Amino acid sequence: MNMSKQKNPMPTQDPAVRAHNFDEVAKGYDAETAENEADRCLHCKNPACVSGCPVKINIPAFLQKAAAGDFEGAYAVITAESSLPAVCGRVCPQENQCEGQCVRGKNGDPVGIGRVERFVADWHNEHAAAPAEKPVSNGHRVAVIGSGPSGLTCAGDLAKKGYDVTIFEALHTPGGVLVYGIPEFRLPKAIVSREIEGLSALGVRVCTDVVIGRTLSVDDLFDEGYEAVFIGSGAGLPRFMNIPGENLKGVYSANEYLTRVNLMKAYRADSDTPVMKGGRVAVVGGGNVAMDAARTALRLGADKVYIVYRRSMEELPARREEVEHAMEEGIEFLLLNNPVEILGYHNPNDRRDPKNGFVTGMRVIRMELGEPDERGRRRPVEIPGSEYELALDTVVMAIGTSPNPLIKSTTPGLDVNRHGGIVVEEETGKTSLDGVYAGGDAVTGAATVILAMGAGKTAAAAIDKALGAR
Amino acid sequence: MFEIVRRAELNPTVTLLEVAAPLVAKKARPGQFIILRVDAAGERIPLTIADSDPEKGTVTVIFQIVGATTEKLNHVPAGGCLADFVGPLGRATEIGGVKKVAVVGGGVGCAIAYPVAKAFFEAGAEVHAVVGFRSKDLIILENEFRAHAHKFVLMTDDGSAGEKGLVTDALRRLIEAGERYDRVVTIGPLIMMKFVSAVTKEYGIPTVASMNPVMIDGTGMCGGCRLTVGGETKFACVDGPEFDAHLIDFDEAMERGAMYRDFERAAHEATCNLYRMGESKQ
Lengths: 470, 282
Fold this sequence. Notes:
heterodimer; A: 470 residues; alpha/beta; five-stranded parallel β-sheet; 16 strands; 33% helix; 16% strand; B: alpha/beta; Elongation Factor Tu (Ef-tu), domain 3; seven-stranded antiparallel β-sheet; seven-stranded mixed β-sheet; 9 helices; 32% helix
């Protein structure tokens, strides 16, 4: 038993170096460190970490195998519950989940569960002998809409049971938010494509360039002979603040900014997709997406990058590690600050001045925390007369998304709630339509990879129960 | 991969491609668009659907060579393939309930104006087509328009064909002569649509403009195609591409359209140089 109070530190690229490249920031443990860290687990009788995990991985069991150097055994324990361990080890907010519940955390650091999980998954990917074999088909066909975390999980679970699964993806590359949203330096795309290759080995077909709600409707899928449909279409339309100046040139939604860079590879010289690079950049928002956008701006060559967030550090929703990494890289946090207007260039004497309509800055007002709202979070209140101007070239709005109406508007009888999220039965993922299931951000609004995976899993089990009986 | 089954150069800068895309062809309606990528490093560009044949499983697009991507696209031969071709996206033109319509097209926008005119014509509306080009050698689809319009007015900037002048002059003259349109549909350069909209506003004629802003995914996810319509932000890809022209902030749309002008100019030049080098080696 390793009784050290500290987690084994994660080797990372030097902040001064990594702020200028898109290579992965965290380099991962080596085998010895992983064994050593796994050996910090106390093997509690009633492991709180498992209850903190949205997909209920048997954490003490996989740590025990990892501590003994049986990494393939550890991998088998994890993948009994999770289909994307290399992804989750990197992007899960462990501090609010498994590690947040770990008993070791009461007096020192919790066990570095996420770091060991990542090592185990990477070890498997490097050493695994043969890809999984295609299970014997049970003859049932299932359609999965969207190839993000929930869709991949649902497809994987069903394929393992012998279902004939087809994933329909609107973009040209599968992976959803793992490909267009989360940057290369946090989640290398090679890892995502490896996960998708794993699904292909199980017999899952991926049809890219198909927009359900346009190219095909949900009804078309049933007409084509699919017996069940899982909707994992993701978060949808980016929100804006509805303040003046948001349509100026140089204002992006985080979705657009990150898609240009991650999916379209605008950071590479050989990409045909442009993105504004350099200068002074403000990212509005405090979630993981905001951190990703800010750190991307830095890597695209920005001179100065701000995070503008209307509450304080305590309420900032991003994963702790991302906030720490962002600070180390030199991103400045303007907390308790809120934009009021985005300012642009206008030459009154020359309507054809090429600089017209580009962002020059942002008017920002300082905030203080007032009374708690209905959810117990202290409400940010403007401090009168505290407005000031920030000189800027680019503004990225990372303040969330609202559900995409495409599927809802072309699927009669599919119920959505007042926010536009698809209504499902929590235990099964069943929607208001027979044979149609849903999960992930299309149901909950913007949430985490692991929650979406959990929803994909739940729906896969329910689909298996419904179709397996036939 | 999506095969180009037919390729035709309509004029020195405008090319027609008929692409094998059976699923898209099955659903495509006039007014909708597709997004394509030429190759794996290519950008995603939206092109409005010019025609579709559900039985053959093909979709026709017509494009003008304006930048690096359209230059590359113009170099794909018949029988060659496009990496991606997705759609149909956006909402279709509302055809029903219109008795008499003026379809006003400009330049390569006529490629989109034509299927709209045809749809109205086939639905039994009286169709007046007013189309404008810079000069005679840039005219496209003249015979097609003539076959699907009760009245056809051709304008050129230099008077080398049809009448010399702008489409707005012709439209105003028709209205002044007593033509009573219950709708005007305009498709072409933003500046043209802005002035068509100004003319019809004077006469209180409901007018629809087809917008073609910068876009990436085309499904509402990125918001890059946003524009201001009636003081509200709209996404052209899911709320459009057609909007009430009298409510569109055309000046803002023109500014946003020029966001990457420098990048595009440099990329186009670099692409042309590549092709030139390729040719000189042969």
